[in-house]
Specification:
Layout lengths: L1 E10 L2 E11 L3 E6 L6 H8 L7 E6 L2 E2 L4 H6 L1 E4 L11 H11 L4 H14 L15 H13 L5 E5 L7 H14 L4 E6 L2 H7 L2 E6 L2 E6 L1 H6 L7 E6 L3 H9 L4 E8 L3 E8 L6 H13 L2 E7 L4 H8 L1 H4 L1
This protein binds adenosine-5'-diphosphate and magnesium ion.
């Protein structure tokens, strides 16, 4: 549904987006991750046709955003970074207005407004003026505006920014639910968001893609993924360390030896889940050693994020 090919954007000498390609299918929620200034908003503004690219192309549902902007834009719901709202309108009049802009009228319009209000849990405030709403409700009003025409594609720029934890949860669940039938790309710098609602994530840094995969695949790329934390007793630490070093799946052993045991980490040759831990466990059984702790690190998304982006290198 979304095809981005070799997209670049230069602001004078500054390269904000650098030869970026990606695609999002129907039924897919793509998390677009990156530190501040990575180029997320600029990319999304180009995808939605609000900013012309310096080079490259975007097509949405088969329509090129440059050559055929009307049919492309009709398929898109967009929640921009700083969402436009008419503060003196009520929620319901604002959504009616948004529906009219999308060419709806009469019963169709009423149905669309009611549906958006229901989907975004706005029933309680539908007759309230927007400037009297709390931030969470304002935000959901913007989201309701973005989905008013039941678009096949949703582009959401930091949809949970500034919300409290409960509100974040509501919006994440909404995204997840809508992702079953739409193609969604949403940006965030919050890693737990990716775990909570994405089928896939792309990490960008300085305008370039530095990683692309399922949250699980990305997690496994963290340096510590697959390492096994151990505490083993029963003989001298040095002897235990020597045994651990000889294991076929171990690439290295680090830690503290005492007269009665060893505490440290065993690094894997390859992060294959459970294999190294199993080998350690078998070793201890056969030598009559006592396992106090045996814990495989599954990898942490934020480790990987720090390792891959300039934020971590700074
Ligand atoms: N209109 C603009 N003019 C000049 N520089 C811009 C403009 N918009 C964005 N930038 C720069 O492009 C880079 C990417 O910005 P942005 O896409 O907003 O990042 P993100 O949304 O990931 O935080 C930043 O360095 C930003 O300062
Ligand atoms: Mg941004």
């Amino acid at each position: 549904m979304i095809e981005v090919n070799n997209l670049s954007k230069h602001f004078g000498p500054k390269v904000a987006v650098d030869d970026l390609s990606l695609s999002v299918k129907k039924g897919e929620v793509l998390g677009f991750l990156g530190p501040n200034g990575a180029g997320k908003s600029t990319t999304m503004r180009m995808i939605t046709g609000y900013l012309p690219p310096s080079s490259g192309s975007v097509s949405v549902g088969g329509a090129d955003i440059q050559d055929d902007p009307n049919s492309a834009k009709a398929k898109i719901g967009y929640l921009p970074e700083s969402a436009p709202l008419y503060l003196d309108m009520t929620v319901s009049s604002f959504l009616n207005f948004a529906a009219e802009l999308r060419g709806m009228a009469g019963g169709v319009k009423k149905e669309a407004v009611d549906k958006a209000i229901e989907t975004c849990f706005l029933q309680k405030v539908r007759h309230q003026a927007i400037d009297t709403l709390s931030k969470g409700y304002r935000h959901r009003t913007c989201l309701a505006q973005a989905i008013i025409h039941d678009p096949e594609v949703l582009v959401l720029d930091e949809p949970t920014d500034g919300l409290d934890p409960n509100q974040k949860d509501v919006v994440r669940n909404l995204i997840k639910e809508m992702g079953k039938t739409k193609a969604i790309i949403f940006s965030t710098h919050i890693l737990e968001e990716v775990e909570a609602c994405c089928s896939r994530a792309i990490i960008i840094d300085q305008g370039r893609i530095v990683a692309d995969g399922t949250p699980d695949e990305l997690r496994r790329r963290a340096t510590r993924a697959g390492q096994v934390q151990v505490q083993i007793h029963g003989t001298s630490g040095d002897a235990i360390k020597a045994e651990l070093s000889r294991l076929s799946h171990a690439s290295g052993v680090d830690g503290e030896s005492t007269a009665s045991g060893f505490t440290g980490v065993v690094k894997p040759r390859k992060a294959a889940r459970g294999v190294l831990a199993g080998e350690i466990s078998t070793l201890c059984q056969s030598k009559g050693l006592q396992i106090i702790e045996l814990h495989e690190d599954l990898g942490r998304l934020d480790d990987m994020f720090r390792e891959l982006t300039s934020q971590g290198k700074a």
